[in-house]
């Protein structure tokens, strides 16, 4: 019981913040324009600042975390073909949306929030490094999937490379690693200012995600949405934790790996499906359903892992 209480203390506040955002949007206190502007602020400014500060000031290094990063990368690469096999019975045009929804997690917000709540700044730094590696795999795979299965978009290596290079989260992580490796000294006043900006990131982002959810979509959820959500919330964590066990990760690294893997489907999967000719309705259902269930599955999984 005590173990489950610990797990719930990690996931519960995150879920409640999402729920508050959902309620505030429904009563009109969070407008669509505010959510759009706040989401853009988080993505372009505050989340990159948070990642830079936590990585730059962390005791751990990229080389020191190689077993964690290897487990995350290998596990992600294994889950993608498994999701592809599960999508085979679906309509041809729905497969890319299903596959992306089944493996692409919300690492940047919910995954990092869980890691920070469970393990503090060190867990957040580990989660940020993990996110840097896995996000590149996410972007590469998602663009290829929609290019293969969509009739309206063609794959472009140039566009993919541009998206990766211009991604502010990846840029912030790379700059932090370079600055740390070169031994640069950042003035204290800048670090303090960065802390002020970073401190608003996770609460604001969680409120925006909650405000963007539409649980009415759950009434129209198909078997495909349930299958993709189940794959994301149960099979993906098992596969990644399995690689962590093989690499003999220490307890905190294993916990961070699990929490990042157990995050629900990323909201960007809906945006990408709509932009690249996928089934955006299916994508929205997967996001809503996985977000609703993730606090339960992550709590149970963390309790078992602990």
Automatic annotation (TrEMBL):
Membrane-spanning ranges: 6-29, 41-60, 66-86, 128-149, 169-190, 196-217, 224-247, 253-273, 282-305
Pfam families xrefs: Mem_trans
Annotated compartments: Cell membrane
Keywords: Cell membrane, Membrane, Transmembrane, Transmembrane helix, Transport
Domain of life: Bacteria
Keyword Transmembrane helix part of the UniProt annotation: yes
Membrane topology: Multi-pass membrane protein
Stored InterPro entries: Mem_transp_PIN-like, Na+/solute_symporter_sf
Annotated PANTHER family: AUXIN EFFLUX CARRIER FAMILY PROTEIN (PTHR36838)
Family: Belongs to the auxin efflux carrier (TC 2.A.69) family.
Protein name as it appears in the record: AEC family transporter
Organism: Microbulbifer aestuariivivens
Organism taxonomic ancestry: Bacteria, Pseudomonadati, Pseudomonadota, Gammaproteobacteria, Cellvibrionales
């Amino acid at each position: 019981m005590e173990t489950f209480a610990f797990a719930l203390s990690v996931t519960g506040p995150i879920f409640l913040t999402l729920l508050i955002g959902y309620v505030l949007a429904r009563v009109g206190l969070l407008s669509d324009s505010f959510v759009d502007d706040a989401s853009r602020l988080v993505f372009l400014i505050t989340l990159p600042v948070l990642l830079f500060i936590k990585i730059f000031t962390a005791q751990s290094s990229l080389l020191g975390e190689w077993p964690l990063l290897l487990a995350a990368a290998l596990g992600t690469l294994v889950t993608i073909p498994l999701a592809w096999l599960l999508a085979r019975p679906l309509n041809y045009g729905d497969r890319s949306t299903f596959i992306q929804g089944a493996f692409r997690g919300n690492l940047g917000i919910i995954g990092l929030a869980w890691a920070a709540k469970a393990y503090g700044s060190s867990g957040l730094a580990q989660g940020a490094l993990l996110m840097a590696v896995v996000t590149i795999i996410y972007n590469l795979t998602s663009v290829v999937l929609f290019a293969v299965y969509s009739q309206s978009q063609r794959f472009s290596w140039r566009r993919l490379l541009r998206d990766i290079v211009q991604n502010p989260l990846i840029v912030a992580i790379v700059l932090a690693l370079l600055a740390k490796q070169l031994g640069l000294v950042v003035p204290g006043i800048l670090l303090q200012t960065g802390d002020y900006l970073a401190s608003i990131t996770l609460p604001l982002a969680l409120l925006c995600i909650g405000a963007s959810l539409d649980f009415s979509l759950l009434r129209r959820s198909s078997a495909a949405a349930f299958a993709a959500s189940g794959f994301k919330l149960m099979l993906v964590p098992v596969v990644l934790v399995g690689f962590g066990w093989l690499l003999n990760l220490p307890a905190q690294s294993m916990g961070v790996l699990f929490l990042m893997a157990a995050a629900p489907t990323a909201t960007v999967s809906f945006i990408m499906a709509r932009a690249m000719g996928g089934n955006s309705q299916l994508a929205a259902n997967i996001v809503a359903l996985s977000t609703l269930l993730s606090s339960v599955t992550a709590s149970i999984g963390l309790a078992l892992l602990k």
